Amino acid sequence: MFVSSLAAWEKAKLEEETLDGRVTDVAGFSVGEFAAFVLAGILSFKDALRLVKIRAEAMNQCSQRLSSGMLTLRVSAASRLDEAFEDARTYAWEKGELPICEVANYLFCGVKVVGASETCMQFLESTQEKYSFQVVKRLAVSGAFHTALMKDAVDIMKEALKDVTIQLPPRVNIYSNYTGKLHTYKDKQIREAIIKQICSPVKWEQIQQLLHSKHQNYKFPRFMEVGPGKQLGAMLLRISKKAYKNYMSYPV
């Protein structure tokens, strides 16, 4: 995903010679944030690729500790998600399992991804009507990423970042998965955001809302998704149909 996204970006620049100079804002989902760091000039390609590899290996090691995964949920104002999570964790604890159950991704209004242990996932699937939410599907992933289960990967990334140069200021605005806001352009804060992203939910809904509201009084900009798939475009459509009219996908 990291390499293919940057390859797609290079392809897009070849097709539109003035494209690079017209980009004002970048964001990437989960590992895609590292591609955004490269595009913004904060990380070199070499450093980012190394961090992506270390991060993937560390998070995979964390996943081996416990049978876990991720669920996409549809929620409403009537949903009692916090109560469901608490009861799921209690249920897992009573069965002698690590009680992991928390929001891992905020996708768009009414839809979230939950990272949880297998026992907690089964609890949510069997009690969704009781707590007034809908389990849409299980994701084809190997673990509960962006949750507390990944905490052992934090120290590994801290060590890896010691050999990385953070280049500031960025050439374009870049948004943080961890805060859901613009990155704070200070070396310490960038490193902290990279580390905390591992165990924290991806606030994609919040980022998309900011991008939409930033330009709402102007002629609408183009939104571009570079790399395989059109998942981010599908989420943009749920945020703003007006924004989606100016959406383009650049696959590899």
UniProtKB/TrEMBL annotation:
Matching entries from PANTHER family are given as: MALONYL-COA ACP TRANSACYLASE, ACP-BINDING (PTHR47170), MALONYL-COA:ACP TRANSACYLASE (MAT) DOMAIN-CONTAINING PROTEIN (PTHR47170:SF2)
One Pfam family linked to the record:
Acyl_transf_1
Origin: domain of life: Eukaryota
Q: Which Gene3D superfamilies match?
A: Malonyl-CoA ACP transacylase, ACP-binding, Malonyl-Coenzyme A Acyl Carrier Protein, domain 2
Question: Which InterPro entries does the protein's record reference?
Answer: Ac_transferase_dom_sf, Acyl_transferase_dom, Acyl_Trfase/lysoPLipase, Mitochondrial_malonyltrans
Native source organism of the sequence: Gongylonema pulchrum
Q: Entry's SUPFAM superfamilies?
A: FabD/lysophospholipase-like (SSF52151)
Q: Where is the Malonyl-CoA:ACP transacylase (MAT) domain?
A: 1-250
Per its record, how is this protein called by name?
PKS_AT domain-containing protein
Which GO terms of the molecular function aspect are on file?
Answer: transferase activity
